[in-house]
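Below is the record:
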Amino acid sequence: MEQKAYITGLGKYLPEEKVSNADLEKLMETTDAWIQERTGIQARRFFTPGKESTATMGAEAAKQALERAGRRPEDIDLLLFATLSPDYYFPGCGVLLQEMLGLQNIGCIDLRAQCSGFIYGLSVAQAYIKSGMAKRILLVCSEAQSTLMELSNRGRNVAVIFGDGAGAAVLEASSDQRGIADVQIHSEGQHAELLYQPHPGTRLRPRLSTEMLQDGSLLPIMNGNAVFKHAVVRFEEVIRANLKEAGIGLEALSLLIPHQANLRISEFLRKQLGLDETQVYHNIQRYGNTTSASIPIALTEAWEEGRLNPGDWIEMAAFGSGFTWGGALMRW
């Protein structure tokens, strides 16, 4: 039987600082009721600058995943690191994590697929394992987004949504029924500027100026209504495509773990697919949108809660800036 990627260990890391909606009420004109009605979010975690970073949070999640997989750092032959909030402009976080974990001189691939980072990472892992180019892969997704946001009236539409955290998975070759049955990734660049952060970029000289700080152009820009409309369509498309490719129906699906972008999107999707509440996993209420880290954090929590059982069909799907989206169907 053809080899495919299978998750043998999962890990997560959430910073200690919990920021509730009530905390944000003190910093901007918003309310707990307004935030929950539009996003479902009740709280999120913020990292501590000087103590934590994207790379260090990723390292903690990775250590947990390695331990649960029964593997040591020297067992890993490829590292994939997905984030939109790296520690440095360059190099990427992959090599920082490689040093922190004491991995050998293996390849480190940094992925920039934003909220779709975990799914894109799974697709790369699947390709490497199926081709025989790698045997054991560490996939890490980590985000330190709180310092990208402005906790003010000017930045509130985006600032209330995002949180910090990391998730990780160890992937190995499986030659039985377990593993990734289908993974698909897509993009549609014509909508890139509906959700993006234009500065600092390389198109201007200087790349950073005091004017950018003053006029708010360093802040992320999001057309929330457009993102919602595109997301619900693409989510459903890719989920149905995964199931069709694997030759199973929605009734066989044990659990759907969508990117934790917005509880309204997830609930709309659940109803469109005709799934009951027990078939969809949510944790956005506690952590907000942790971008690339949201699916591996949720997947880890679902495993910890005993929601993933041998033989279960698990679907994971994401949609984010780019636009990028993708879905992965796995037999647990």
Observations:
- The CA atoms of residues 182 and 244 lie 9 Å apart.
- The domain at 181-331 is CATH 3.40.47.10 (Peroxisomal Thiolase; Chain A, domain 1).
- The chain is about 35% helix and 25% strand.
